[in-house]
Here is the input.
Amino acid sequence: MDNIWLLAGISIAIGVIAGACGFWLIAGRDKNGAIGSKKQIRDLTEKLEVQQQQIDAHFVTTADLVNKLTLTYKEVYDHLSQGAQTLCDLDAATQVLDARKNVAKLIASDDARDINPDPTGPAKDYAPKAPDTTGTLSEGYGFTNDNRNT
Here is the structure.
């Protein structure tokens, strides 16, 4: 009987030692895996921040270049207008100035439309049709007098 208790005690001791070693191996792997995951997250976060800064810089530069382009276009247009006034006769200069006023009106209307877009309103029937027929968006489209009564 003493051998059974000795065998049971040795088995329990071996089981506890094996369990402790297994736990140590599993816990050690999770720790290294967690450290690796944290490093990957930190690297990806840094990469995302750098990319966001590049995107911001790109659009700031693009806006600056578009503004410069607009100013250059205006300078060229002013130069042509002044040249037309000094080099052309009165009729041609008047035509150039009238055209310039029309361009200014178009630019102003484009700016106003961008700031306050027009409401879309209800759908319009632009489908091609014969002059005396109803369009496809008409309430009575496709109905005959027989169908309306039923």
